[in-house]
Design brief:
Blueprint (H helix, E strand, L loop, with lengths): L16 E6 L3 H12 L4 E7 L2 H11 L3 E5 L7 H11 L5 E6 L5 H9 L3 E4 L4 H12 L7 H12 L15 H11 L4 H8 L3 H15 L4 H10 L8
Parallel strand pairs: 1-2, 1-3, 3-4, 4-5
Helix pairs in contact: 2-3, 3-4, 7-9, 7-10, 8-9, 9-10
Length: 232
């Protein structure tokens, strides 16, 4: 008697991450597409040349990630980011792309809700890693750059701490400080000697208390709220 075939228990392959590219330079979009689509788990599903094109395109396609040029005609990347995040129930993770690390537009984009920023001179591995990173819920931050931008934007601001600072527990404060250094949840878990789920719980509490959409906004709030000493 022939034995019945054993059903496969292998998990179904995950669909590729869907990405929209927003940049006013066609050559830049083409280069990004070539790099990203060389990876089996990444798929570029749309392109926009202006912020005005990007907003309805992202709404209709509902991608996982948007690479958003910070400076575009008609509507810049900051306003486009604000509109996308304000009008979608489940918005994508938005990474703003800039030429200069100290671009003041970057800080405004992060405050608007972007998950992080990437330099146009980034190499292919950094680009690919950035897309995968933000989808996991981590922030794409360059701590030194964020610290410098925050200092410039908060110069002369009142020195009193924001009310939420006093509501943080000691461990939540530790987590927020580590978040500001750019550590991932796994890295924070190892640094604090606690489990990843415990870190996720503390991160969620920090987001709630700071009124932040995500980790990036929490880090911005940490600088603006006086929690982290500003570099003068």
């Amino acid at each position: 008697m022939t034995a019945a075939p054993v059903p496969s228990t292998a998990p179904a392959p995950r669909p590729p991450l869907r990405i929209v590219l927003c940049d006013d330079e066609r050559m830049v979009r083409t280069a990004l597409r070539v790099i990203l689509e060389a990876e089996a788990d990444l798929e570029v599903v749309g392109e926009a040349a202006t912020g005005a094109e990007a907003v309805p395109l992202v709404r209709s396609l509902a991608p996982d990630v948007v690479l958003m040029d910070v400076r575009m005609p008609e509507i810049d990347g900051i306003r486009a980011t604000e509109q996308i995040l304000a009008t979608m129930a489940e918005p994508p993770r938005i990474v703003v792309v800039t030429t200069f690390e100290n671009d003041a537009y970057v800080y405004d984009a992060l405050r608007a809700g972007a998950a992080g920023f990437l330099l146009k001179r980034a190499d292919p591995d950094e680009l690919i890693g950035a897309v995968r990173l933000v989808v996991r819920g981590d922030s794409l931050l360059f701590p030194a750059a964020v610290r410098s931008l925050a200092a410039a934007h908060t110069a002369g601001a009142p020195s009193a701490d924001a009310p939420w600072v006093a509501r943080l527990t000691e461990r939540e404060a530790d987590v927020l400080r580590l978040m500001a250094t750019g550590l991932s949840n796994q890295e924070m878990s190892e640094s604090l000697g606690v489990g990843p789920q415990t870190v996720k719980t503390h991160v969620a509490a920090v987001l709630t208390k700071t009124g932040s959409r995500d980790r990036t906004q929490a880090v911005i709030a940490a600088y603006e709220g006086g929690f982290i000493m500003k570099k003068r």
